[in-house]
């Protein structure tokens, strides 16, 4: 099995696992403090689960451990850990879905949560990412969303439709190290 398929399989599993484990909740009482998501998932990528930055991020974002994941639902982030407990991927939810709040921090490459597939390709083309803004690979591993991979920069963008559609909007962004 090639490495690309393994990664897609893990990410598809992660999506299904998080969806299955997510439960809607109704909160009563005072509002919670805003999570520290904007203090940045970038500070934890490539670091050990025991690293101070990772421990602080997990604590301040009220993350919950779920096998190989840290689910930071209030921050709109899930962190995927490898076997060595190193943070390899940050999964940014851009809409309120799968029990996660919408991620409110800055997105890579000047992307915005409301960008369409066409706008994303245009922005990435201007920055020299991918093959003239087009991804190196694309797939629909979960049969629900269209996934495009920009391997050179470690970014996967998941769209809200299962096929290539210029008007599709971003569902989530995965940033890997």
- Describe the sheet with the most strands: 8 strands, antiparallel
SSE string, helices as H and strands as E: HHEEEEHEEEE
Distance between the termini: 21 Å
Mean pLDDT: 82
DSSP strand tally? 8
Strand order of the largest sheet: 1-2-3-4-8-7-6-5
Number of domains: 1
- Compute the CA-based radius of gyration: 16 Å
Structural commentary:
With 177 residues, this protein is of the alpha+beta class. It has one domain. The chain has 3 helices and 8 strands; from the N terminus they run ααββββαββββ. It has an 8-stranded antiparallel β-sheet with strand order 1-2-3-4-8-7-6-5, with no helix packed on it. β3 and β4 (87-93) form a beta hairpin.
Brief rundown of the structure:
The protein is α+β, with helices and mostly antiparallel strands and 177 residues long.
Which properties best describe this structure?
22% strand, eight-stranded antiparallel β-sheet, alpha+beta, globular, 177 residues
Write the layout of secondary structure elements.
Elements: H1 3-21, H2 52-60, E1 64-66, E2 69-72, E3 77-81, E4 87-93, H3 117-126, E5 137-139, E6 146-150, E7 155-159, E8 170-176
Antiparallel strand pairs: 1-2, 2-3, 3-4, 4-8, 5-6, 6-7, 7-8
